[in-house]
Amino acid sequence: MIALKKIVLALIIIGSINWGLIGFFRYDLISNIFGSNLEFVSRIIFALVGLSGLYAITFFKGQRSY
Q: Is residue 2 a part of any domain in this protein?
């Protein structure tokens, strides 16, 4: 389970860096790495980043606010 959380965290970081680059510089890192020929791979990565974000919501489960 710890390995899954580390993978999810890495995907979230990749996604946030990519969105930051898009927002500030209009540069899509993922699409530029894989190019237009591998658009399907880019879509898979974007989907995994999205699922990772949804899974990360569970990280707040069980945390107490003091």
A: no
